[in-house]
């Protein structure tokens, strides 16, 4: 017959042993970042590839109506804008003319042929 030693329990006030603190190295941080980032980047890439909107060509033509005007000596876009649309803000008309003609600056040359919106032309 064996006699077992009585169980000893630690008093309530005794400190509990603490688990060792996890320390991650610089290399470990890099590996963890790659492990986390790779699936995220993969999912975003797949979403970008397969969820892109489809471009559908239609048979309808655009309804942009415009007339041509030949720039005379001494004319500016500001003067042209005031002539073709006296009641409109010249800055808006100039912006529309520049967009229609794909002009990068507002200067025009004598003899230059520019398109002006037909709804503004008098």
Assign the structural class, choosing from mainly alpha, mainly beta, alpha/beta, alpha+beta, or little secondary structure.
Answer: mainly alpha
Strand order of the largest sheet: 1-2
Helix fraction, binned, reads 25-40%
Low-confidence stretches: none
Rg value: 38 Å
N- to C-terminal distance: 121 Å
Strand/helix succession: HEHHE
Gross geometry: rod-shaped
- Largest sheet properties: 2 strands, antiparallel
Per DSSP E runs of 2 or more residues, the count of β-strands stands at: 2
Q: With helices defined by DSSP (H or I, 4 residues minimum), what is the helix count?
A: 3
Average pLDDT number: 82
Descriptive notes:
- With 122 residues, this protein is mostly helical.
- Helix content is 37%, strand content 8%.
- The protein has helices at 26-50, 77-84, 90-101; strands spanning 66-70, 113-117.
- Strands 1-2 form a two-stranded antiparallel ribbon.
- The chain starts with 25 loop residues before the first helix and ends in a 5-residue tail after the last strand.
- The mean pLDDT is 82.
Summarize the structure.
This protein is 37% helix and 8% strand. It contains 3 helices and 2 strands.
Please render the helix and strand layout as text:
Elements lengths: L25 H25 L15 E5 L6 H8 L5 H12 L11 E5 L5
Antiparallel strand pairs: 1-2
Helix pairs in contact: 2-3
Q: Any key phrases for this structure?
A:
122 residues, mainly alpha, rod-shaped
């Amino acid at each position: 017959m064996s006699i077992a030693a009585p169980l000893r329990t630690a008093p309530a006030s005794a400190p509990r042993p603490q688990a060792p603190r996890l320390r991650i190295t610089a290399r470990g941080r890099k590996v963890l970042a790659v492990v986390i980032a790779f699936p995220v980047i993969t999912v975003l890439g797949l979403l970008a590839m397969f969820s892109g909107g489809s471009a559908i060509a239609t048979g309808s033509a655009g309804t942009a109506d415009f007339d041509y005007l030949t720039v005379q000596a001494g004319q500016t876009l500001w003067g042209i804008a005031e002539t073709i649309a006296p009641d409109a803000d010249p800055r808006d008309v100039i912006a529309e003319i520049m967009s229609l003609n794909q002009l990068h600056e507002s200067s025009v040359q004598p003899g230059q042929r520019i398109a002006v919106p037909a709804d503004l032309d008098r």
